[in-house]
Design a protein that fits this description.
Rossmann fold; 2 domains; four-stranded antiparallel sheet; 6 helices; 13 strands; 29% helix; binds ribulose-5-phosphate
Length: 236
């Protein structure tokens, strides 16, 4: 008996393979967080193992990314050790037609924004379900907040028209704690007219560490799709 592969997983793998193929020997590579970039890290490890790729260094965007990079044999460096990142590859929860993003489904958006924004080239890898006409259509905006400021930040986002919800752990009692020891508010907005303005406004609230709106950071989006029953990768 054969088991049909989940089409979303197939699209993620294809797009991850296409992104991993864009990495050249000697590059410093930003390693994103999430299920799609987990495939990227695995494929980079495969290329290193086969000798097709040599001497790359990874800058992880999360504890999860560093664990996977070690598992697949990718040497890691910190931002203290390198001045530039040649290429960053990361996933996203929503992508609009201007290549603006909502990220942070894995609560890693703070480190992701630092690494992705530093990269000379930033490639986003998504399956086609992540494409939206307008940010905020399907996904709330994740905001990393210092634990002591959860109440005032929640009140401030309500004044901005948002509905905040403290992100809770799935296999853990209590809230999700980020790699930096903070908490995450997922904030639903009925519509986001100006993502750049909302990104700045949210980051100006005292106690907010970083929010998951990424404006003007993306160079390329690789989109995994199924066409005529076959997975294809489209570029935006
Ligand atoms: O922003 C992220 C983590 O903070 C991820 O990149 C985003 O949630 C997409 O994840 P996936 O590839 O699993 O769909």
């Amino acid at each position: 008996m054969t088991t049909a592969l989940d089409p979303i997983q197939v699209m993620k793998q294809e797009v991850a393979r296409a992104a991993a193929a864009r990495v050249s020997s000697g590059m410093v590579v930003g390693l994103g967080t999430g299920s799609t970039t987990a495939f990227v890290i695995q494929f980079l490890g495969d290329r290193l193992k086969s000798g097709d790729l040599k001497d790359i260094k990874g800058v992880p965007t999360s504890f999860q990314a560093s664990v996977l990079a070690k598992k697949y044999g990718i040497p890691l460096v910190t931002l203290d050790e390198v001045e530039t990142i040649d290429l960053a590859i990361d996933g996203a929860d929503e992508v609009d037609p201007q290549k603006n993003l909502i990220k942070g489904g894995g609560a890693a958006h703070t480190r992701e924004k630092i690494v992705d924004a530093l990269a000379e080239t930033f490639i986003v890898v998504v399956d086609s379900s992540k494409l939206v006409d307008r940010l905020g259509s399907t996904f709330p905006v994740p905001i990393e907040v210092l634990p002591m400021a959860i109440a005032p930040v929640s009140r401030a986002v309500v004044k901005l028209g948002g509905q905040p919800e403290l992100r809770m752990g799935v296999r853990k009692d209590g809230p999700v704690i980020t790699d930096q020891g903070n908490m995450v508010l997922d904030v639903k907005f009925s519509h986001i007219d100006n993502p750049a303005e909302l990104e700045r406004t949210l980051n100006n609230i005292p106690g907010v560490v970083e929010n998951g709106i990424f404006v003007g950071v993306t160079d390329w989006v690789l989109i995994g799709e199924i066409k005529d029953g076959q997975p294809i990768v489209r570029e935006m």
